[in-house]
Design brief:
This protein is an alpha+beta fold and about 160 residues long. It contains 3 helices and 4 strands, in the order αββββαα. It has a 4-stranded antiparallel β-sheet with strand order 1-2-3-4. The model has no long low-confidence stretch (mean pLDDT about 85).
Length: about 160
């Protein structure tokens, strides 16, 4: 008669323990994969709102995606990646279609560039708005001047315009 509770011969008990561990690891990997998908979707959707609003495209260094140096890679405002190969053929993929490592590389490289571009755009817009404010102030003075009485004091100093 065979005893069921006796030790399993030939390391079968160890094999069962490894199988249980393998199942546990596989479940954890599955859960991490689901979390990765959710995090990438959230990142993609949130970042896309910002990049669409800003409207900037960024060149990405080809080595970050394991392409040769004569390949041009562009991250568009819609978070599409354009890959223009040396033979001028191109392909287009969404950012969220890349691997976790590739997405990390693109984000790590592109976010500082996008931030710099946004700061430059803000500074440019501030300067233009300051000019338009001064022009509006000058025109408002003209409008408020009593032209019928001959009062024409509409001078604005050059220093005010330069600001």
């Amino acid at each position: 008669m065979v005893q069921e509770n006796s030790e399993k011969p030939d390391g079968l008990a160890d094999a069962l323990k490894y199988m249980e561990t393998l199942v546990d690891e596989a479940v954890q990997i599955y859960e991490l994969d689901q979390e990765k998908t959710n995090v990438i979707d959230e990142l993609y959707n949130s970042l896309k709102i910002i990049t669409n609003f800003l409207g900037f495209s960024v060149d990405v260094h080809p080595a970050l995606l394991n392409y040769p140096s004569d390949t041009r890679i562009v991250l568009t405002p819609s978070l599409d990646i354009l890959v223009i190969k040396p033979n001028y053929k191109s392909e287009q993929k969404r950012l969220d279609e890349f691997s976790l490592d590739e997405i990390s590389n693109i984000i790590r490289y592109s976010i500082p560039t996008l931030t710099s571009m946004a700061k430059s755009d803000r500074n440019y817009t501030n300067k233009k708005l300051a000019f338009l404010r001064n022009a509006s102030k000058t025109l408002k003075q003209l409008r408020n001047a009593n032209i019928e009485e001959g009062t024409h004091n509409t001078s604005v100093s050059v220093e005010e315009v330069k600001q």
